[in-house]
Amino acid sequence: MPKPTLADKLVVAISSRALFDLSESHRIFTEQGVDAYQRYQIAHEEELLAPGPAFTLVKKLLRLNRPEKQYVEVILLSRNSADTGLRAPRRRRFSPACTRTRPTSCASPSMATP
Question: 7, 49, 105, 114: which is deepest, by most CB within 10 A?
Answer without folding.
Answer: 49
